[in-house]
Amino acid sequence: MNAEITPQEYEAFKKFLQDACGILLGDNKQYLVKSRLRRILEDNHLKSLGELLDRIKRPGRTNLKEVVIDAMTTNETLWFRDNHPFRILQEKLLPEFAESKSMQPLRIWSAACSTGQEPYSTAMVIDEFRRSRPGKLRDVKITATDISKSVLDVARRGEYEMIAIGRGLSPERQKQFFTASSNGGWQIKPQIKSMVEFRELNLLDRYTLGKFDIIMCRNVLIYFSAELKRDILTRLHAALNPGGYLILGASESLNGLSDLYQMVQCHPGIIYRKK
Ligand SMILES: C[S@@+](CC[C@H](N)C(=O)[O-])C[C@H]1O[C@@H](n2cnc3c(N)ncnc32)[C@H](O)[C@@H]1O
């Protein structure tokens, strides 16, 4: 994109992005928009952000809209991100669910899963728990969703480059849960992969995934307006089983956003229980 972004174009793009995926762009992020969209404009022979928006609005251009959303979302993630949630899962939540008399599968939802590190880390903790307490935990199903097709493609493949593997994964877990691929990457083992089902889902849409015992919605609400956060937190509440848990990112909290959950202090770490 050679042309400068005009204030009108920037405002129109901010509105498009917020309506399409909830992301609230700050007032001075023109450089970010430019750098993330440069390639898409070139590939589509477009000269300005205004032309791009016009093209997206044309009927039959849904693919271009997806590509733009993909470019604008931040997919940063790593294995066992923040550690606490996974320790809380291992030491508090799984023992609690293991004691339950329910015959239903334990259902976990990773609601903005990016390239799969979050749901696969969860599956590893479950596998470790099962080995340490054989026969104690009932069937577990992990549903992992994201708005971005390209991150879901990576997640479904379950093959990661060394640099991605190095981010948060211990050598012991790498050895235990991955096999080296012929092209230098690392493939997640079938026993972990088969625990996770990936689906495309926009958190702004109405969804019918059924009820969950644990929802991880981490490092995504930060991009949304307070109004949208409230709305999503209400819908996540409806998607939890009675007594189910919500886990947010380390820098996220429910302060002033929802009184539908009870805060549970886990020393260290905080999770939220459905009221
Ligand atoms: C920063 S990553 C967080 C990944 C993971 N939860 C973690 O904490 O490591 C944020 C993810 O949210 C996804 N996302 C952004 N807007 C979304 C929306 N409206 N619906 C669903 N996913 C969305 C992005 O595609 C991205 O993969």
UniProtKB/TrEMBL annotation:
Cite the binding residues for S-adenosyl-L-methionine: 75, 77, 81, 118, 146, 202-203, 218-219
Kindly give the SMART domains that the UniProt entry links to this protein: MeTrc (SM00138)
Please write the reaction equations for the catalytic activity of this protein: L-glutamyl-[protein] + S-adenosyl-L-methionine = [protein]-L-glutamate 5-O-methyl ester + S-adenosyl-L-homocysteine
Annotated CDD domains: AdoMet_MTases
Q: Which GO terms describe its molecular function?
A: protein-glutamate O-methyltransferase activity
* InterPro entries found in the cross-reference section: Bact_Chemotaxis_MeTrfase (IPR050903), Chemotaxis_MeTrfase_CheR (IPR026024), CheR_C (IPR022642), CheR_MeTrfase (IPR000780), CheR_N (IPR022641), CheR_N_sf (IPR036804), SAM-dependent_MTases_sf (IPR029063)
- Keyword annotations: Methyltransferase, S-adenosyl-L-methionine, Transferase
Protein name, as recorded: Chemotaxis protein methyltransferase
Where does this protein come from, organism-wise? Marinobacter persicus
